[in-house]
Amino acid sequence: MGTKVLISGAGIAGPALALWLGRYGFEVTVAEAAPRLRGGGQAVDFRGTTHLTVLERMGVLDDLRRIRTGGSPMRFVDESGRTRLHLPTEFAGGDIEVLRGDLVHVLYEHSRPFTDYRFGESVTELRQDADGVHVRFRSGEARTFDLVVGADGLHSNVRRLAHGPEERYVTHLGHYAAGWSLPNYLGIGPGEGSVGLNVPGRLAAVGTSHRDPETAAAFFVFASPALTYDRHDQEQQKAIIAGAFAGTGWEVPRLLASLAEADDLYFDSISRADVPNWSTGRVALVGDAACGATIGGMGTGTGIVAAYVLAGELAAAAGDHTAAFARYEGLLRGYAQGCQKGGDRAGKFLAPGAVGLRLRNWSLNRPRILDWMIEEGRKATHLDLPDYRRFETAPDRISTPGRPLR
Ligand SMILES: Cc1cc2nc3c(=O)[nH]c(=O)nc-3n(C[C@H](O)[C@H](O)[C@H](O)COP(=O)(O)OP(=O)(O)OC[C@H]3O[C@@H](n4cnc5c(N)ncnc54)[C@H](O)[C@@H]3O)c2cc1C
């Protein structure tokens, strides 16, 4: 019998970890709170050889190349509609850009043969001792696993249960971000990317959805101290966004009118997770739960790399999870913190104050500075990757709980 691992969360890091652990012969269960895969989100990107190497070793790179968006250039305008800054595809889209929802589906399909996926399920209690982690689920089921991994995002449930309340680990960085779909009334074409109005402390952008020419995607960012609101109350969130952009010109009134109709609003503080220890006993964290940044912190690439290293170290440690968790954190912490720095700057970059806005537009209108920033972004993602291929189990020996290999 393989080591039994429960992963909480079927976003990006969860299915990536499941894929690797399955290949190494672990018995993997993934509990996802949502009733089905959460396909939401806009474009996410991978940049630099480390990201691409991990995707290639996972066997998903060709799939992602087939569904890549082609990138999302960004144009910033003022209230008269005059272009103040143009950022090319490589700036925001990295080396390969895909829609987050498409990526989630690819990772799910590649991990499904080795994984017992439970949708609409969530951990309500965790208790660990020398025999394992005793888990109670929302459904009432009780099970014991050898290990539990929280891959349940910036607002991680496993982190709360194992380490304590979110306020200890998640820092608000001074801005909020919102995104939703709307009819493509501006007729933005697939390669056009997005156009956004900047006024001090605010960005109101609209761009191609990449999926459907009839649909566009709105993306708003605004400066604000931490707000108190109900994360499940979309009407309340819509009112906050409308209030933050009241009186703003350009296309904003029409974009806000579309917000009232939106049924797929994403709204969150731009914040950063810092957890002093990424594991406690038999419970570890991966992806945004351990080291996330809401936007700009390369959370998707870091999540993929972290899942690769965590699974590889567990395979290499042959049952010594304490050694594996320590090696995983030792290899990844500095790397993840380097990538997170982009997240620290994201709000101030997208929606700067008056002086910051002038400075940003002045500097990034110079090709040399722009190229330097793109290269710095690539460099931040570099990690000397350990090679764990020797631990991969032959396909006919892979444990497939309750499901035949496809
Ligand atoms: C709906 C959505 C849209 C996003 N859109 C963007 C975007 O447009 N651009 C961008 O750069 N990043 C976006 N992100 C964040 C991005 O996916 C992550 O930064 C990154 O990919 C790291 O992934 P992760 O797997 O650690 O976390 P996530 O991708 O956030 O996945 C976490 C998963 O855990 C699940 N979960 C949460 N609580 C529980 C619980 N109690 N029990 C079980 N499961 C739980 C969530 O439903 C989710 O599926 C989005 C995330 C989500 C969930």
Automatic annotation (TrEMBL):
The keyword Oxidoreductase applies. Keywords: Monooxygenase, Oxidoreductase. Residues 3-319 form the FAD-binding domain. The keyword Oxidoreductase applies. Pfam families: FAD_binding_3. One of its GO terms (molecular function) is monooxygenase activity. This is FAD-dependent monooxygenase.
